[in-house]
Amino acid sequence: MSEADEKALRIELAQLRQEHRDLDVAVEALAATANCDALQLQRLKKKKLMIKDRISSLEDQLFPDIIA
Fold first, then answer.
1. pTM assigned to the model
2. Helix residue ranges per DSSP H, 1-68
3. Which parts of the chain are coiled coil (predicted)?
4. Is 19 exposed, middle or buried (0-12, 13-18, 19+ CB in 10 A)?
5. Cα R_g (the chain), whole angstroms
6. Rounded CA gap, 60 and 44, in Å?
């Protein structure tokens, strides 16, 4: 992997981690409201899970497990 590719992956990883944290705050805020929209909450949680999967994928590319 070239240095430019690795840098791009690290930037994307940082952006996804920030978006995941933002969604976490949004989910907590929505869940705390009295008349919470269940469908919206479900969509936010699904998006958060998709982002977490992408984060895991990027981490595997950047930090591969080396079995010795």
1. 0.85
2. 3-32, 38-62
3. 6-61
4. middle
5. 16
6. 24
